[in-house]
Write a structure and sequence with these properties.
Length: about 800
């Protein structure tokens, strides 16, 4: 039987490379050990030079040649090294790899020495002048460097299972559901048989025999199709998974086994939309980079899984695009478990290089599909360089590779121009047409001539309206509303399978892009995954967690002319009751939203008065309603920006009820403006199934404190260190974020943990974050986030090895 040995610990690292490092061991003596995942350079949050991580560096580790490895295959795998790497075993070059986003395996069987320590040296080139994708021109994201994904050794018999690729067919027209597996055997093929078992993932059931012994043929490739009877399907709401265990048998002894987790589902794009198991589903997703503050790509399993959890459970999306490269298997594993649809693509950004560069891109396509095709969540392969020009000869090759290696999935290719050559199965287009006051998306026929082919919007918004957490309120609101506009248009446009917003969170980028501080503020979350206002537009579309947010702090001085403009309620509740100084004003429902194609679109507040004019001013219903409409409209844009119809209505009111303009001004200041008067308290209650599920109180703050949350408080070291994300905020006494609080906070830890990044950070728009990392010791620990006003929040946690 095979054995896997993780090699993430006890490496040494140097920010340079020379041939002498392969022979002169004394040069390594003073170097401290590091752990994988690792970045070649920890960076500031912002305002730094991207050249800092561009270098040729060296990693070194020793492994003992176990006597039990004799007569066996020793396979060394690197899941991800950014970006060009050479692996040396005992001073001899064993293999080179030219992609920073795919795994590669080195057969070191003939290079390893049994009974002694063996030296592994890895030369890593993270410079951006390499002639491999995505390099060759400017790139709108930082690419970082280092051995940033897992490293491990597999010990195998001379004959072993090299690959098992699983596809499924669903029951139809009297036929049973079926499992199809393509099996590839490495090594000698004689006297070998295959046996397969199946069980439901996560259950305590025993494995059931799926396939009895099949003889391995000389070519070492077997395809088995087995009826599986009644199965539970994988979909976005019930992501049922199964495990197929394949055993390789020789002389009645199991010499290798491989478990593949998969789901039964049929995912297909048609000209009228996307279908999952025969049901039409509108894709509502976001793009995700795999980067983090300070450490770039170098984050372990827990943080990769957390991003998938945030997408599904906090943002409420049903899909993600792994822009612009294949991402961690831990992230994809979690997408499989959560029912999150995935569009994954080959590395690249706009630029197409020379023939050598293209050959590497084709190889990247091959590696991506071979390595990721057992992820049930993946429904589309991206086989074009993102936003590149047409190159039919090149893209005929990438499409051919994809269809050969995985006939079960369709291909797409992201472009940013119309009427391009369509070699893929799905026309995927970055639609940046929305500017705030026009349609949220273009019509399919305006973008592609292939109207009988599937069509998908792969990006929108993003650079069209960047937004920071500390931007003024109306800017943050406009950012949110633009996302709602596009979502609503896509949901109501026939022939559009769905869309992926740009993007999940802010990210570090090159000097050629962003806001000059090396950050692109295109996310619906900040870099620490704190939500911006736009995040609530997405969160409202899920029903598991109650959402209730208001687009305003109700502070009139934040707005030009003290006119609040449009203020929105974001909620997924059945209704929201609004109170002003504890007096009921109005109850809003989804029917009050103009976003009729969304389940829970933003709801504009159109009444700040309620029945007060009747109750307090002695007006009858007719007069009160007419005055109320005029006052509420004035609250949006001010007296001098009213629609002409409002001036006519004002004249009629004055004539009919002998009202004076001074009367209207007094009523406005009393019920709308709050100017020169006592401040107002607003309360909102979200109602679901006749119960209050969430309450929001908005009034001028009198005190503030630090709030902090950790994503998990039991940190467990498995293959390497564990990391927990800590998100914190400055909030008032009612829990409302104070978006103009940019004070510094201090981060204090105790126990076997360390901070990733600085100990003192400044809040950005009242929000901040950090990461804590385990230190190979177990025990109790704590983290305290302390503000300069003396308030703090402490969190207790435990570390387990």
């Amino acid at each position: 039987m095979g054995e896997r040995i993780n090699l993430n610990n006890d490496w040494k690292f140097m920010e340079n490379f020379s041939e002498e490092l392969l022979t002169n061991k004394s040069l390594w003596e003073p170097i401290e050990k590091i752990r994988i995942p690792h970045t070649v350079k920890e960076l500031p949050f912002h305002y730094f030079d991207e050249k800092e991580y561009q270098m040729i560096s060296t990693y070194r580790k020793f492994i003992f040649g176990d006597p039990n490895w004799r007569e066996k295959n020793v396979l060394l795998t690197f899941d991800g090294i950014a970006h060009d790497s050479q692996v040396y075993i005992n001073g001899a070059l064993a293999k080179s790899h030219h992609c920073g986003y795919t795994a590669f395996t080195v057969d070191i069987t003939d290079l390893i020495k049994i009974g002694v320590e063996n030296e592994i040296v890895v030369k890593v080139d993270s410079r951006e002048n390499l002639n491999v994708p995505p390099f060759g021109f400017v790139i709108d994201y930082m690419t970082y460097g280092g051995i940033y994904r897992d490293v491990y050794i597999d010990i195998k018999e001379k004959s072993y299972l090299k690959d098992v690729f699983v596809t499924t067919k669903l029951a139809k027209d009297g036929l049973k559901s079926a499992t199809n597996s393509k099996i590839e055997i490495a090594g000698p093929k004689h006297n070998l048989t295959i046996r397969q078992y199946i069980k439901k993932y996560g259950s305590d059931d025993e494995y059931k025999v799926l396939a009895k012994e099949h003889v391995v043929t000389e070519d070492g490739e077997i395809e088995l199709v087995q009826d599986t009877g009644e199965v539970e399907l994988w979909d976005i709401d019930s992501p049922n998974l199964y495990i197929l265990k394949t055993e390789l048998i020789k002389d009645e002894k199991v010499i290798d086994e491989k478990e593949v987790r998969f789901g039964y589902r049929k995912a297909v794009f048609h000209s009228d939309g996307f279908y999952l198991n025969g049901k039409k589903i509108k894709i509502r997703g976001l793009n995700r980079h795999q980067s983090y503050a300070y450490v770039g790509y170098a984050m372990p399993k827990s943080m990769q899984q957390l991003d998938a959890d945030i997408l599904k459970n906090e943002l409420g999306v049903n899909a993600v695009r792994t822009s612009h490269y294949p991402q961690s298997h831990y992230f994809l594993d979690r997408c499989d478990e959560l029912g999150l649809l995935v569009f994954t693509e080959i590395p690249g950004w706009q630029h197409i290089g020379d023939e050598e560069w293209k050959n590497q891109a084709v190889e990247n396509t091959r590696d991506m599909i071979l390595q990721y095709r057992n992820h049930t969540s993946i429904v589309l392969w991206g086989v074009r360089i993102n936003e590149s020009v047409d190159d039919d000869e090149f893209y005929e090759r990438t499409n051919a590779v994809a269809h050969e290696l995985d006939p079960s999935r369709q291909t797409g290719g992201v472009r940013c121009y119309k009427k391009g050559s369509l070699l893929e199965d799905v026309y995927t287009y970055n639609d940046f047409s929305h500017t705030g006051n026009n349609s949220g998306c273009e019509k399919k026929f305006a973008v592609t001539s292939d109207i009988n082919k599937p069509y998908l919007v792969s990006e929108y918004n993003g650079h069209m309206y960047p937004c920071k957490t500390y931007d003024w309120e109306e800017h943050r609101r406009e950012h949110a509303i633009r996302h709602a506009n596009v979502l609503n248009s896509v949901a109501g446009t026939e022939g559009v399978a769905g869309s992926f917003g740009w993007c999940m969170f802010d990210y570090n980028t090159h000097k050629d892009f962003g806001s000059g501080d090396r950050i692109c503020y295109h996310g619906v979350m900040d870099m620490f995954r704190n939500p911006k206002m736009a995040a609530f537009v997405y969160a409202c579309e899920q029903d598991k967690e109650p959402v209730l947010e208001i687009s305003s702090s109700m502070d009139i001085g934040e707005h030009p002319g003290s006119n609040r403009g449009d203020i929105y309620i974001f909620t997924n509740a059945d209704s929201v009751k609004m109170y002003k100084n504890d007096k009921f004003i109005k109850e809003y429902t989804a029917k009050d939203s103009k976003y009729t194609n969304l389940k829970h679109g933003p709801i504009r507040i159109d009444d700040y008065i309620g029945s007060a004019l009747e109750d307090n001013e002695g007006m009858d219903y007719t007069q009160a309603e007419a005055v109320k409409v005029l006052l509420n409209e004035t609250a949006r844009g001010g007296l001098y920006n009213l629609p002409k119809l409002m001036y006519i209505k004002a004249g009629l009111l004055i004539a009919k009820y002998q009202m004076k303009m001074s009367d209207m001004v007094k009523l406005y200041n009393k019920y709308i403006g709050d100017w020169g008067g006592e401040s107002t308290t607003y309360r909102f209650e979200a109602i679901k199934n006749d119960e209050v599920v969430k309450t929001l109180c908005v009034k001028p703050m009198t005190e503030w404190k630090i709030n902090a949350e950790i994503d998990h408080d039991l940190l467990v070291e498995e293959n390497s260190y564990d990391v927990a994300a800590v998100r914190f905020s400055a909030v008032d006494e009612n829990g409302n974020v104070l978006h103009f609080c940019n004070d510094p906070v201090e981060i204090i830890t105790t126990g076997p943990i360390e901070i990733v990044g600085p100990r003192v950070v400044s809040l950005q728009g009242g929000l901040g974050g950090t990461y804590i990392r385990t230190k190979r010791r177990q025990g109790s620990a704590s983290i305290t986030v302390k503000a300069m006003n003396g308030t703090s929040k402490s969190i207790s946690l435990n570390v387990k090895i």
